[in-house]
Amino acid sequence: xxxxxxxxxxxxxxxxxxxxxxxxxxxxxxxxxxxxxxxxxxxxxxxxxxxxxxxxxxxxxxxxxxxxxxxxxxxxxxxxxxxxxxxxxxxxxxxxxxxxxxxxxxxxxxxxxxxxxxxxxxxxxxxxxxxxxxxxxxxxxxxxxxxxxxxxxxxxxxxxxxxxxxxxxxxxxxxxxxxxxxxxxxxxxxxxxxxxxxxxxxxxxxxxxxxxxxxxxxxxxxxxxxxxxxxxxxxxxxxxxxxxxxxxxxxxxxxxxxxxxxxxxxxxxxxxxxxxxxxxxxxxxxxxxxxxxxxxxxxxxxxxxxxxxxxxxxxxxxxxxxxxxxxxxxxxxxxxxxxxxxxxxxxxxxxxxxxxxxxxxxxxxxxxxxxxxxx
Length: 375
What we know:
Blueprint: E1 2-6, H1 10-21, E2 25-29, E3 45-46, H2 53-72, E4 83-87, H3 90-100, E5 110-113, H4 115-121, E6 131-135, E7 139-140, H5 143-155, E8 160-163, E9 168-174, E10 177-182, E11 187-190, E12 192-195, H6 203-209, E13 214-224, E14 234-236, H7 240-243, H8 250-258, H9 263-267, E15 273-276, E16 282-285, H10 300-314, E17 321-332, E18 340-345, E19 348-352, H11 358-373
Parallel strand pairs: 1-2, 1-12, 2-8, 4-14, 12-19
Antiparallel strand pairs: 3-7, 4-6, 5-6, 9-10, 10-11, 13-16, 13-17, 14-15, 15-16, 18-19
């Protein structure tokens, strides 16, 4: 088949890779010279540990697909480094112990480590904590490098054409196929179109499907200069237990009741996630804002909180912050849905709204689309 994919983020790129691997021809459109949305404004984490029960199978499959992609495209920087969620209070430790007692604990790759075992696993963590919940299955990719690397690999097939700085304006279908008109005056004819609009829920997406059952979420993050030593795992703090659905249960309810978040963390719905980039710097975040219109500027107080928490866990000052940014992703309103996937018109599909799981689930979502459409 000849397939047009609209959107150059992780979902669009993963769908392109899946289609090429299945023997199809792909024409790929991205409205920016390079993807600039949530795909490149994230941690690059492939996050198994916190996923809800209904997400786990897809997450584990996606983890396999990332490893397969890394074998084909080493430049994406995939590393199966695992993660450590550092627990600083008895209530946080109780949540981890409850999770470890569940039947799916081994499938998630969980192990509870004492402080000495934590420092053996990740010697850079010389700070203050009671224990660490280790997930051996978590991983990371280089979010700002992965997409160009995947596209370069796809181009070697001879069946992939990428058009950056090209905005799809209109997508129609009739008995002869699908027709995509772009802002360069070109119409591309194909058998199928897959539109992955990211957080751009107006414009083409609204023209095709009306108001999608999605909301947008804004986050703030930052990056430091090189740490000067290796952070062997990704790192999360106890506030992440409140955010990720895998930790829901009686112990978490008791934690919420007895251990309120710091006011700044509660106001910005914060957790700490930290991952080291290949260049040695740390990507640190994040906040969550749900009510639009979003601010156009970034607030400094959340950054100061994240810096303080990171330094407590590392037991040292972090390097200078060299970049700060905000990003927006789209998220399905139904928490039981991994993504919105629907046929807007004949042979024109929209796939959007994985929430903060786009990097984690992208390859598996593309595989699901291919299976559903019989590619």
